[in-house]
Amino acid sequence: MPKKHQQRALLTKPQSSTPHTLSLSKSSASTSQNARPQRTVNDLIRESRRLQIRNEPRPPPASTASSIPPALRQVLDIPSPPPPAPRVGSRLGGPSRLRRIPGPPPPRSWLADSIHASKEFGWVAADDSNRRVQVRSSNLPEGAFPPPGSLQDLVLKKIATDWGWHAEHDCDYLGLLPKNLKETLLSYIAVYNEAVVNPLKPLFLDDIEQEERDEVRRLDLSNGLGVWATMKQLERDLFTRHALMASGKSGPPAAASSSILAPESWDADNDSDEATSTTFTIGPQIVPNFLNLKHLSLAMSPTNSKVASWTSLLSLAAELRTLTSLSLAYWPQPTFTPLAASTRAVVDVPGSRPVIYGGSDVYTSYDNNWREAAGILRTLSRSLYCLKWLDLTGCGDWFAALQWTGSSLGASNSERLGPEWNGGWRGLETLVLEVGWRPVLPAVDAKPIQLDQPAWDVETERKLYRYNKERERFVEIRSTAQSVARYLRSLRKASGGKWIQVEYGEDLT
User: Fold this and answer.
1) Within a domain: 382
2) Which domain holds residue 386?
3) Residue among 361, 352, 306 at smallest CA distance from 332
4) Which residue of 17, 327, 331, 344 pairs with 297 in a disulfide if CB–CB is 3.0 to 4.6 A?
5) Which residue stretches does the UniProt record annotate as biased composition, category Low complexity (predicted)?
6) What whole-number distance in Å separates Cα of residue 183 and Cα of residue 377?
7) Domain total for the chain?
């Protein structure tokens, strides 16, 4: 019979570890250690960082106990729970790896159009320690602007914001825009751009025919003086000087210079009339580049008030007699000597009256002596006799010069001292006398009063004192504007003139 198959593998005993097998295992372990590569410097640094993080003290775990209402906690006299531990990476918990947004701060136009901007957003005066905020620059009449948020409005804002780039690369196409679109774009540039590129040249002057310039009626040059133009540069852009020549046989006039046309050769006999003819230079003729200009804005920022020149303004007004709207927002006090406000000298001239250097000074408003300012405004009123709209926003420091009659100095005829409201400016219908700024309420941090500290803060009291002074100044300027309005209306009523509308702006609420 065949033998039965037996599973001997199940009956096999495990081998005992003999010294021979132990020696083999040790030799294999040694060979594996020799084959393992050595650790590099980076491995050692990572290991040290792991050990450092492992040894750092960990914040206590957050309490999972149920919270108790504050009122019940106060009744049961239970101490308040400890504050939560700061998050990893915060300023209090350790160095943060988050970086600030690179680059300069966002421009003013971005903040003005943002939905998160405050309602009182505007220009803050740097010299007033952030106590005033500018509310408006200028708003010339007859301005056709697209609806806010429309495609044309967004495109014009974008072009005005990047005006420096467009003036450099698109100068060949800007002159081809329609006249109305150019005037609107100029107003957008006055608000949304702070570049130093002159917008008048690529829009209205370079390679533009005189017939197209004659169609321009509105130039909004707000915030341009002191940024991309001066008074002399503006005069060169608005006018062109041509030398007017005249020829004749008779002798030159006394006030003209003559230049005799000499023959090519002195030996040649030339008895014709051309040899004895003379050419006279009568003088430079000023030709306006914008013949039908009606609305002009020369409003400026209060920080650039030193650029304003009343002497240059009077020379411009003598050539712009057809203006019907003019904005002089934030212009300084009218004077011919702005640098001599704190200087006054009397020069003795033998045989004549002494010469006084310096017109208006720093005490003009306290003494109520507006003789120089009233004289400048009188000359301006005689030049701009077609004016119907005048904007003096932000000029509250010299509103009193508009109603100065010289009664305190014993003057007999008040019409000769101030502006000619019934003469040159008899057609003025709207006068804007807004304050132009609003006081800013200081931000006061609400801190609990400690027993070892006084109940008031010196710095907070100082801020509130300055704020109250600014409010008083605002109310004073507004009351002066109302006084000017009453004076002008009574003056017009006495002479049977037109009604004049005076705008004050919004009051403090």
Assistant:
1) yes
2) 333-508
3) 306
4) 327
5) 21-32, 87-96
6) 28
7) 1
